[in-house]
Amino acid sequence: MTTEQQLPKGWKKTTLGEISIVKMGQSPNGKSYNKEKEGYLLIGGASDLGDIYPSPKQYTNEATKLSKANDIIICIRATIGRLNLSDKVYCLGRGVAGIEVNANVEAKFIWYSLMNSETYLLKNSTGTTFQQVSSHTLKKLPIVYPTSKETQQAIVNKIESLFAEIDAGIDSLKTAAQQIQQYRQSLLKNAFNGELTKEWRSKHEDTLPSENELPAQIQTAREQHRARQLADWQTAVSQWEQNGKEGKKPSKPKAPTQAVKFEENVADLPNGWIWGKLSDLGELARGKSKHRPRNDKKLFGGKYPFIQTGEVRAANRIIKKYEQTYSEFGLEQSKLWQKGTLCITIAANIAETAFLGFDACFPDSIVGFSASKAVLPEYIELFIKSARTKIESYAPATAQKNINLNTLENLIVPYCSLTEQTQIVAILESKLTACDQLAAELSKQLKQAELLKQAVLKAAFSGSLLDK
Fold first, then answer.
1. The pLDDT of residue 239
2. From CA 186, how far away is CA 427, in angstroms rounded?
3. Nearest CA among 25, 75, 85 for reference residue 53
4. N or C, which terminus of the chain has less Cβ within 10 Å?
5. For the chain, which ranges sit under pLDDT 50?
6. How many angstroms separate the CA atoms of 415 and 313, rounded?
7. Are 176 and 445 within 8 A, CB to CB?
């Protein structure tokens, strides 16, 4: 805060309490609320504040603390420092305070001064569960201002002019960010309806398999995958027997439930494409963590990484970090999935995806997908990204949304040849990476724009803004 020695000519240092009446909110009796839209609108806290003016919806017949028109409303709990202007009389609840500025000071000047005082308010708030600003803290908040109301108004006008320019830039950046997101969705949609590789396909149509040949290729890949599973299992059993049958006997892999059967209606697909279930293109299974209690110390602290849904969501396609590990005891009740397994979340944040960057266990809120040789795992990962909204729609309307394994097993996937899948993945990864880089740059510029507003306020209350 500017010191007296640094004050520009004609400026004065004071406190908020000396130049205004501070009215701390007080919640009315619960019985005074009414549904007839009579009495006073109640501003209870941040949820009742709008962009500039309050937007409360609850009425009360009893009001111990009232705002006046042109009062500044400041949130003093939860979202501390959020500001509104009172456009009429409101009942002030305990989450806000009203500031009635003296006649010799422009209310908007104090509005921006308070906006510049957020650090002070947060530093001097109290409480554990809920941080709150006291009446004493508000009244002692330092204020510097030019004694001339003309100068105050000139500073307000300058701030608002500069803020308008900054806001216009912010709006343009947000529009660009939305357009990038729309472009991403368009890319994903066109990738899996054949449009993205339409030109490539026309140049290679003589070498591509027909829609009648694809099912046979997938069936062969499934049989080969099954043969490898059985061979690996027999090797594991043999090793287990050589070790004196110590520990749990390796489980025999489950047999495929049925032969490949594809949807006959391919009217919406290009020539050479077919529809099929995700379960026909690889192995799907839920993770295991149904033990109780989940915080049993015997389960944790070993050498086996234990991945949770948050780590899938936070990963940039490949999971490289983990917070918890399973012990040998934990592993016995779970399963160690191989590096490269595609993880798909089925609870809370549905259809988030990432590949394991190491062998790991994960809970039953995650499904693991191991692709057969007939499909690229990256192709399936990108398809799930494109179909995420649809997948989420299968979740029942409960407090915590989730889907089951059967939903993913029966997910219909547009399927094409491996060579075309390779083209689709390469094009998508290149273009989506460019989108991500541009989105990151826009995010950086948005943060810089917000910092520019802070710089404007700093200049305003040091007395140098009108010199610029």
1. 80
2. 13
3. 85
4. C
5. 1-4, 258-264, 266
6. 26
7. no
Rounded to whole angstroms, the maximal C-alpha distance in the chain is 93
Q: How far apart are CA 153 and CA 105, in angstroms?
A: 9
CA atoms within 13 A on the CB side of 387: 19
Per residue in 392-409, pLDDT (tens digit) is: 988 886 667 789 999 999
Asked if 344 and 285 count as a contact pair (C-beta separation under 8 A), the reply is no
Do the beta carbons of residue 201 and residue 270 sit within 8 Å?
A: yes
Choose among 114, 108, 126: nearest CA to 82.
114
- Supply the DSSP string of 132-148, one letter for each residue: B--HHHHHT-EEEEES-
H or E stretch covering 415: strand 412-415
Yes or no: say if 15 and 142 are a contact pair by the CB < 8 Å rule: yes
Element (H, E) at 438: helix 418-460
pLDDT in tens, 82-95: 999 999 999 999 99
Place of tokens 């510097």: 144
Task: In whole angstroms, give the CA distance from residue 254 to residue 262.
Answer: 22
Indicate the residue type of 195.
E
**Could you tell me which of 436, 160, 206 has the C-alpha nearest to residue 316?**
436
Distance CA 247, CA 235 (A): 16
CB 63 within 8 A of CB 91: yes
- Would you call 318 helix, strand, or coil by DSSP? strand
State residue 372's pLDDT score.
86
Q: Cis before residue 396, ω within 30 degrees of 0?
A: no
pLDDT of 259 reads 45
Q: Single out the residue of 123, 95, 106 nearest to residue 160, CA to CA.
A: 106
∠ CA(195), CA(198), CA(199), 5° rounding?
A: 135
> By C-alpha distance, which of 359, 352, 338 is closest to 253?
338
What is the residue whose two structure tokens read 């099929």? 276
Query: Which residues contact residue 389 at a Cβ distance below 8 angstroms, ignoring those fewer than 6 apart?
Result: none
